[in-house]
Give the backbone structure.
Amino acid sequence: MPGEYSWGFDLISSRLWIAFVFLLFGWPGLAQDSAATLHRQFQDPPKQYSITPYWFWNGRITAEESRRQLHAMKAQGVFEATILPWDGMSPRY
């Protein structure tokens, strides 16, 4: 019967909306804790969420300059990089 199908759909639809609202806004009080935690993580993100810049190597590469650049990256919160050797690099890659 059409009424039964419609009622079943409305019941499911209502439950989905209620679930969606709880997922979106969370339980009362929990959202504030989550927001505070998220704010702290943005202020001092874990190392695994560090940016990963492309580090182009060209020209003469020395251990001293590489160390200087690594220390500068670490001081800015960068804990990994993707090295891309470029044309004209010395020593040759």
In short: The mean pLDDT is 77.
